Amino acid sequence: MRYFLLFIMLYSIVVSAQGVNDSIKIGNLNEIKELNELIEKWPTADNFYYRGYSYFAIKDYQNALLDYNKAIAIDSTDFKYFFSRGKLKDEVKDYRGAVLDYTTCIALNKISYKAYYSRAFSKSNYVDLYGAIEDYSKCIEINPDYGPAYLNRGIVKAQKHLHEDAIKDFDKALSLNVSFIETMKNRAISKALLNRKDAIDDFNAVVQSDQKNGEGYYNRALHIINFKLKQDYCSDLKKANQLGFIPAKKLLNQYCKL
Length: 258
Fold this sequence. Notes:
α3 packs antiparallel against α4 (61-74). The chain is an all-alpha fold. The protein is built from 15 helices and no strands. The protein has helices spanning 12-17, 29-41, 45-57, 61-74, 79-91, 95-108, 113-125, 129-142, 147-159, 163-175, 180-193, 199-209, 214-226, 233-242, 247-255. 71% of the residues lie in helices and 0% in strands.
């Protein structure tokens, strides 16, 4: 059975989960000014790095990259420099470049689970899906309680149509309290693609948890239509349309009387 138009692959959790040095409260223009003065006196790798991190925090990626490059030119042995430059490259969608930096980071710090996690994210974005699964698995091996890795590995497995394995990862992510709606949404779709009757329970849970998210109503309507369930899908499509989820309008016109 063809399960059409469902949005299976969602990476927002990946982006939000990629934090580094969260305790460093830098990023505003005053702090950049202070770092400029420090660099005039002490042009150290760390000072360039922290100014780069400040630029990154205000989304000035060009200057951030210049400073990260300077830090690495002075000291190429500090893994955090490569990690942060990799994160910047992810932001500008240079995923291959990000992989190279995370690979160097891993060579310098083989127990950095976040480096494996981030490299997996980059690999998944230029469709090295098996490589991404391997890196998420290595991240989990190092830190078995790092929930986002289970969610993202499940998403990649679903892309490879490994839905049974994907569901196991989504179950684990839920047990670790990872992004309930994103995890439940993806688990619902994998269950639906396996023709599991309990998929509707997950679609219901998504709607109940976020009643202002049009995509949840839309996906539940699609599931009801595809599996010919005796439920009111038109109400879901109308709600999705009211909430501004644009794809709902086409199905609303096709299946329901307005």
